């Protein structure tokens, strides 16, 4: 069994495939998935994250309609969904289309007048991979709808609108990491995001200059408790902050965390506080060109998520262990956890070997073949045609 390479596709060809399905298309807009380099479950704790945008994106083509209906089709779904713009409220649309309907709702809430629209989307970020296919869908459709409405909304306002779309209409109370990188990422850079004040800074990310490649491995494992698990971790963090009397865990010190009596809350808070420190240390290591330190921080982050935050799983641990045994400088799970993807910083000349070893471990354990994605830091949301 070999690992399956998941290609990002040719944007021009994908765009043509979509516009062929519309009469009078206005354009095609793309927004990327992401790999978070480090800083996991820190966004909703007013902490720090360091993601990159992937070359894999969701593409949305749009045409105007004369009525007030939003009609959405997806290359990946069998049924189109139609809803009147004025009828979109929390709970009125379910499933994948709620992400798209949510964007229309959020833009209208911000006072933008939207025309009726026909959208066709093609998602090239693997679904359920923990690489933020939902933010890619939301952000690509946000650009498409702004174009259809003829409004130019600045990116930071779009981050806020897309976060509201996801939490209030799609019902996924995420922390903002995914939408922020999808809308503000730059090629060859990671984005340092500070969720205390929403400040961002571009940090050069060019592992190839050091003979390294960032490998993303989609384990294709999704565990039943993934949705509930995310909410439980958020609730644990809020409870820990409340017990410590701080507005968020960003304000907690390591000593305060160790004083927590409850073992579970102490371990959850320890992950968050130590992880925020590791993001700062990773940025410093990158600025010092110290890749072995970056790798060490990746490994420490994974251990913290596995043991203290308890969001890893056998498949993710197997990728991290196997990659590290066969020469990765560092590896860790990425994203929300409970399945999904891991990242590994691998010497480029060992990539094929590491991929083969991971596939062999998966085969030996009776798991489906993992997907592997090339992951140079890529562009954020944009018009492609
Ligand atoms: C998911 C959420 C993000 C973030 C990560 C964990 O991807 O959508 O907001 O909380 O999990 O870092």
Provide structural commentary:
This protein has helices at residues 11-19, 97-109, 133-149, 155-169, 177-184, 226-244, 254-258, 263-287, 291-307, 314-325, 351-364; strands spanning 4-5, 27-38, 48-65, 69-74, 81-84, 116-123, 189-194, 199-204, 212-222, 330-334, 339-347, 371-374, 382-383. It is of the alpha+beta class and 385 residues long. It has 2 domains: 4-201 and 379-383, 2-Layer Sandwich (Ribosomal Protein S5, domain 2); 205-374, GHMP kinase, C-terminal domain (Alpha-Beta Plaits, 2-Layer Sandwich), CATH 3.30.70. The strands form 2 sheets. Strands 2, 3, 4, 5, 6, 7, 8 and 13 form an 8-stranded mixed beta sheet that branches. It has a 5-stranded mixed beta sheet with strand order 1-12-9-11-10. Strand 4 and strand 5 (81-84) form a beta hairpin. Helix 2 (97-109) packs across helix 4 (155-169), helix 3 crosses helix 5 (177-184) and helix 8 (263-287) packs antiparallel against helix 9. The longest helix has 25 residues, at 263-287. The two termini are 38 Å apart. It binds alpha-D-galactopyranose (GLA).
Low-confidence stretches: none
Which value, in Å, is the CA radius of gyration? 21 Å
First and last CA, distance? 38 Å
Q: Provide a count of the helices.
A: 11
Number of domains: 2
> What is the CATH class of the largest domain?
Alpha Beta
Task: Kindly state the percentage of residues in helix.
Answer: 40-55%
Oligomer state equals single chain
What shape does the CA trace take? Answer: globular
- Identify the CATH architecture of the largest domain: 2-Layer Sandwich
**Bound molecule types:** alpha-D-galactopyranose
> In percent, how much strand structure appears in the residues?
15-25%
Query: According to CATH, what is the topology of the largest domain?
Result: Ribosomal Protein S5, domain 2
**Element string (H = helix, E = strand):** EHEEEEHEHHHEEEHHHHHEEHEE
Q: How does the helix and strand content classify structurally?
A: alpha+beta
* Number of beta strands: 13
Largest sheet: 8 strands, mixed
Overall pLDDT? 96
